[in-house]
Amino acid sequence: MESFFLIAAYFSPAIFLGLPRLYATDGGSALWLMPFIIFLFLIPVLWMIVHLYKNYPDQSLVQIIGRLWGPWAQPLAGLFFCVFFVIFTGLFLRQFSVMINVSMLATSQPSVTILPLLLAGIIGALQGPQIISRTNWVLMPLNLGIFLIMIAASLRTATPVYIAPLLGPGIDLLLWRSFLRTPTLLDILIIPVLFPFFRQLSHCRMSTWYGLGFVVFMYSLGLLAFGMNFPAEASSDIAFPLFQLARNISIGRFFQRLEVLFVVVWVILSLLKVMLSLYAAAACFSHGIGAPYYRPYIWPMAVLIYTVAFIPVNYLVALHWEWNYLRNAMAPVFVLILISLILLHWRKTKNKSELPREGEQLSAK
């Protein structure tokens, strides 16, 4: 169960930032249906991930590539995935810093929010995924409880007519736009990196299938609450949709302006994401060069992530780079890598199964 909720926590910060804007732009009033449709498109990818773990349970994605493609590919794969996690985490930190500035520290510089979160992420990454997972397990009731409270409280101001028509732009456009938005769940890349930490196949299956299914359900729940409070035409112009949803909560005289309470939860989830992403960057690099330990590379990766976080000039640029460039470019590459690994595994398995038959024929002659 720890790995199940760890995967859920890793995905969660995206829904608190700019992800609802994209779904509202593409899906209109049917924005809450898009995560379910995207999940259906990802079923073959999830099957390939579980199948790889079934055959290589003690190796990460980079090590599996080196084993199936050859020794020459392992350093390249390690560097490739390391660069992805560095850029991915840096862009996320920039978006996170703007959210904190808007919600709590309006006059602060981005470095004031990025640096403490990154330093805390370094501490967690040095401890490893097991400690990160146990920390998330302890904090999970708080995070999940406050999120559900926000959803329930937002129903007081809900206008169900905002989610009509239910299929938004129409079933054909909805399916096509959902397919184009499958990179929004590219965070599943963290699962093959964590292969060595799953104790058995059932844990990997639970994290991959049920973990992502739970994420999709929570995404849809948050998007449904947001869609019933803001019309689709205006939703795409809101910088932080769920933060705005939390600001609208007003229950009596003493339960108003509770968004700061929700910001605390978002900070916790963001910290867990940074910890795991920082570990993934260092682990991919160390596996690529064949180093026995990943910890010496945590600090260099943190410096690179901090540098990347200040490359975008503002929040919208960071949002655009992540969701329209980085994820869209990485998603097909990741899928092609998985397909090639599955095919190479089947080929090697077939060749091994044919060897005894040839030996039997020679002995018969």
Automatic annotation (TrEMBL):
Pfam families (alphabetical): Spore_permease
Transmembrane segments: 34-53, 73-93, 138-158, 178-197, 209-228, 260-285, 297-317, 329-346
Main location: membrane
GO biological process, one term: spore germination
Key words, A-Z: Germination, Membrane, Transmembrane, Transmembrane helix, Transport
UniProt topology in membrane: Multi-pass membrane protein
Source taxon at top rank: Bacteria
Subcellular location: Membrane
Cellular component terms (Gene Ontology): membrane
Keyword Transport attributed: yes
UniProt entry tagged with the keyword Transport: yes
Family in the record: Belongs to the amino acid-polyamine-organocation (APC) superfamily. Spore germination protein (SGP) (TC 2.A.3.9) family.
Name of this chain's protein: Spore germination protein (Amino acid permease)
Originating organism: Heliophilum fasciatum
